[in-house]
């Protein structure tokens, strides 16, 4: 069985707690990574941008995949090294530290930024049943192994 959640929302600061509420059955790392991906859209694509958030859990691969799709294929996430004095710029670094891997799938009219975490890597992560494989990675996207 493949556990999936798909939400369509506007990327606004008020959407972050709503997203965390929908993901309350998932562990802290899943909720944090999903919120960081949403916040990245707010900060770099624009507040009010329509997004689709997908969370797909699979036991067969022992991973949870989080995807956030927005309509701007040109604005890509950048991994920065923020200093202690900076108040922003840590979102992708945090995601990079928590996720086993992450990347970007681009299409002419949209992009999907995704990450994968091991199931059970944090407290409260639900167990998923047997499932189909995760969607394939985009060869042009960055993948951390």
TrEMBL record:
GO terms for molecular function: protein serine/threonine kinase activity. Residues 28-114 form the Histidine kinase/HSP90-like ATPase domain. Transmembrane segments: none annotated. InterPro entries: Anti-sigma-factor_SerPK, HATPase_C_sf, HATPase_dom. Residues 117-145 are annotated as: Disordered. Keywords: Kinase, Serine/threonine-protein kinase, Transferase. The keyword Ribosomal protein does not apply. This is Anti-sigma regulatory factor (Ser/Thr protein kinase). It comes from Streptomyces griseochromogenes.
């Amino acid at each position: 069985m493949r556990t999936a959640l798909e939400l369509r929302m506007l990327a606004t600061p008020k959407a972050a707690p709503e997203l965390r509420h929908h993901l309350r059955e998932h562990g802290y790392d899943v909720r944090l990574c999903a919120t960081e991906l949403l916040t990245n859209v707010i900060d770099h694509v624009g507040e009010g941008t329509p997004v689709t958030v997908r969370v797909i859990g699979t036991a067969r691969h022992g991973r949870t995949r989080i995807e956030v799709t927005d309509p701007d294929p040109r604005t890509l996430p950048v991994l920065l090294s923020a200093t202690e004095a900076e108040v922003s710029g840590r979102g992708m670094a945090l995601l990079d530290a928590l996720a086993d891997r992450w990347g970007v799938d681009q299409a002419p009219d949209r992009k999907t930024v995704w990450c994968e975490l091991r199931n059970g890597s944090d407290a409260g992560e639900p167990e998923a049943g047997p499932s189909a494989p995760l969607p394939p990675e985009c060869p042009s996207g960055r993948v951390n192994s």
